[in-house]
Amino acid sequence: MIKEKNLQKLFEKLQTAMQEKLTPKERDVLRLHLGFDDGRQRPSEEVCQLFCITKAEFEKTINSVKQKTNEENIKNIMQIFAYKNLINNIFSKYIEIPNDKTEELIDKLDECLNTLEEDKREIFKYYFGITTGENEDFASTAEKMGIEEDAVERAVASVFRKLRHPKTIINLKNFEIESEKIMEEKWAKSDSDMTDILDNFKI
């Protein structure tokens, strides 16, 4: 269960801890991974490629960050990003959700998910990182939930079919429409911020 749905407040709390407790390298890796500057979460593979570090180095950095800061805040942020990623998957394209709209987004998606069968819903939420903040694949979801992998695949496919139904889409359409208004300026700022971060990054 997400304890805090306001992404902006979570970012502000974590920002303070980052400045006080993290090294410059840890701050930069976390900023890109969580999308502090442009709202776009980047997977570990992309962060590793940008900073020329290994997956093991990335995981070591993130573990260090969690030990030094409030791990619950990071978990909440990752859960919110799972909801954002779910919206992108429903519409099959990238959609930018403003930070001040995340509470509304979560409430809308939960409203949709709560109409589904409980067993499929829980599998889907675990698979998508809504439950734990960690995005899983079919195999890891099956292992951690103690079920067969094909059961996970069937549940995820079934939930996606229902979430993409026109009756569901119409309730979520406002997020897609609003995102189109801010995408262009967000990406322009992202390119500028990325250049600055990489120029200043020291391994």
Total strand segments: 0
List the secondary-structure elements in sequence, H or E. HHHHHHHHHH
Number of helices: 10
Main beta-sheet strand count, sense and barrel state: none
Taking the alpha carbons of the first and last residues, their distance comes to 36 Å
Helix content: over 70%
- Decide which structural class fits the backbone: mainly alpha
How many domains in all?
Answer: 1
Unreliable stretches (pLDDT < 50, length at least 5) are: none
The percentage of residues in β strands lies in: under 5%
Radius of gyration: 17 Å
* Average predicted local confidence, pLDDT: 85
What characteristic shape results from the CA principal axes?
Answer: globular
What topology emerges from the helices and strands here?
Elements: H1 7-21, H2 24-34, H3 44-51, H4 55-68, H5 71-91, H6 102-113, H7 118-127, H8 138-145, H9 149-163, H10 166-200
Helix pairs in contact: 1-5, 2-4, 3-4, 5-6, 6-10, 7-9, 8-9
